[in-house]
Structures are given as C-alpha cells and as structure tokens.
C-alpha cells in the first residue's frame, strides 16, 4: 500500500465531505461539523488555501489512490510561534494499516522544512492509545498529562501532551 500526502484542491470538496462524515468522532474536536456537508468542506478548503505553506501544512491523506483522511500542522502565534500543533483523522475503515503513522512521518518532514518551527506539539486524549502510538512511532515524546482538560459528550478526559523537536544537522 502506498501512502501519499497531497495538497487539498477546491475540487476535493466531495471527498472531504465524505471522509468528514465517515470518521469516528470519539476523539475529535467538537468543532468538526456534523454532518460534514460540502459547504463545510468548501469553507475548510478556503481556510487551507489562505494558510498552506505560510502558517501551516494541510494535506489530504491518500492510500491506494483514494483520499482516506486529512492531516495538518498549524503554526501557533505570538510567543509560541516556533511551535505548531498537529491534527489528523482517518476514516474508520482504514485504521490499523499504518497509514496514519506514515502520514505523520511525511507531514512532520514537510512542516519542519517549510515552516519556521523548532517543535511540533500533539495533544491527544489520554485514552486514545492508537493516536498516542502513532506519535510515539514518529519520535514524539510525552511531555505531560493535563487532568480533566477535555470535555467530550459530557465526560471529562485527560489530555496527553506530546512534543517532537526539529532535528538539527551537526
């Protein structure tokens, strides 16, 4: 299986709406529209077009020629401007195939090359073992845990903070 990251294009709105509607939302932000309509996809794609390569890296995850997920690294601002936050999701049918591990590897390489960063931060629900493993396989180190930092469906969850430092050439 080949995993590629591709820049989002305006004509990807139907595919984006489909993956946004077909994702397990258990560990995602509530800001993700539900249902994920083509109008919501168009709005996201406009946001991406304005920021890609400037303050973030936003990519479609393609496996075996089909868009199956999305991944981004968004640079923070002000005194945190050398840091960026990684975020991603994959349609449930594609889980446990190594797709996200490879996508994270690729997007980190792109983000460190294109953006003025020294680190990338991953914020993960403590009970999301799969996402934690993806980050750890890519050299992210758990830096702490914030107790009761997330509320999802009326339930409090702990949040793990992971960091990956940019590697500098000696």
TrEMBL record:
One of its GO terms (molecular function) is acyltransferase activity, transferring groups other than amino-acyl groups. The keyword Iron does not apply. Residues 14-167 form the N-acetyltransferase domain. The keyword S-adenosyl-L-methionine does not apply. Keywords: Acyltransferase, Transferase. It comes from the Bacteria. Coiled coil: none annotated. PANTHER family: [RIBOSOMAL PROTEIN US5]-ALANINE N-ACETYLTRANSFERASE, GNAT FAMILY, PUTATIVE (AFU_ORTHOLOGUE AFUA_3G00765)-RELATED-RELATED. Belongs to the acetyltransferase family. RimJ subfamily. This is GNAT family N-acetyltransferase.
């Amino acid at each position: 299986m080949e995993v590629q990251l591709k820049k989002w294009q305006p004509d990807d709105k139907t595919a984006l709406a489909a993956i946004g509607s077909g994702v397990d939302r258990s560990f995602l932000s509530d800001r993700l529209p539900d249902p994920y309509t083509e109008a919501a996809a168009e709005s996201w794609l406009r946001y991406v077009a304005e920021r890609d390569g400037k303050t973030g890296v936003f990519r479609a995850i393609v496996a075996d020629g089909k868009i199956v997920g999305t991944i981004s690294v968004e640079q923070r601002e002000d005194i945190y401007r050398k840091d960026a936050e990684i975020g991603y999701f994959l349609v449930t049918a594609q889980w446990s195939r190594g797709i996200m591990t490879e996508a994270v590897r690729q997007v980190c390489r792109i983000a460190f090359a294109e953006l003025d960063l020294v680190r990338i931060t991953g914020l993960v629900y403590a009970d999301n073992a799969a996402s934690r493993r993806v980050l750890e396989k890519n050299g992210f180190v758990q830096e702490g845990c914030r107790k009761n930092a997330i509320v999802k469906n009326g339930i409090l969850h702990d949040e793990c903070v992971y960091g990956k430092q940019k590697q500098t050439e000696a």
